[in-house]
Design a protein that fits this description.
The protein has 195 residues and is of the alpha+beta class. Helices cover 30% and strands 28% of the residues. A seven-stranded mixed sheet has the order 1-2-3-4-5-7-6. Strand 2 and strand 3 (96-105) form a beta hairpin. It binds coenzyme A (COA). Coenzyme A (COA) binds next to strand 4, helix 5 and helix 6.
Amino acid sequence: MDVGGEREQGAEALPAKCASQLNASGLAETLLYYSEVPMNPHSKLEFFARNMRSSDLDLVVKNEAEAYEHPWSKRIFIDCLRAGYQCWVLANKQQIIAHGVISVATGESHLLTLCVSPEFQRQGFARKLVRILLDRACKLEASVCFLEVRSSNAGAIALYQSMGFMQVGERKNYYPDHRRGGEDALILSRQLPLR
Ligand SMILES: CC(C)(COP(=O)(O)OP(=O)(O)OC[C@H]1O[C@@H](n2cnc3c(N)ncnc32)[C@H](O)[C@@H]1OP(=O)(O)O)[C@@H](O)C(=O)NCCC(=O)NCCS
């Protein structure tokens, strides 16, 4: 879900009204840990879901660079935190293994980025994190979630489809790609809550 054709465009500031609603709810500050622990019952490692902090960003950006062909910059994550988006990580005291960002406004949510460190992929962490992000969106009164995904990203598309997302649109040549002359974005959506 590289946003806006270039991932650099993914962090437009929330409308002031929405940002103040988020602040007034106190959610970003109070929901530091999610109760679903351990995240992966088959893993000896225990990872917690918690809000992303500024101090996480070097590790978050490192994971992005390792997992994504088109990673977001630290600047974009700083803007997401400032905008009051729901920014979450799966982490323990030593490691951050996954992160995701969802924006919520006027009853809609937009999953803006999702990333699992390569060495932790295919262990169910993305599915767990998406569930948490959609749960946060629901609590902020979103009734639908949208996302954009590169048409070549078969793994991510399989993940979202397995979670009930359906294609509702397509943007031709949405992502700049100098080798292939642009890549299409699929627009996926699902109603909330996730059951
Ligand atoms: C896409 C991504 C987030 C998936 O993370 P993950 O933790 O490996 O995903 P999960 O283990 O939770 O997978 C859940 C399901 O998604 C599907 N899936 C995930 N990765 C897949 C892959 N590479 N190929 C095919 N299906 C895949 C499978 O159905 C999987 O279930 P299964 O393992 O029981 O078959 C991860 O590969 C990633 O960070 N990729 C780079 C960044 C990216 O593309 N983000 C999405 C942008 S829209």
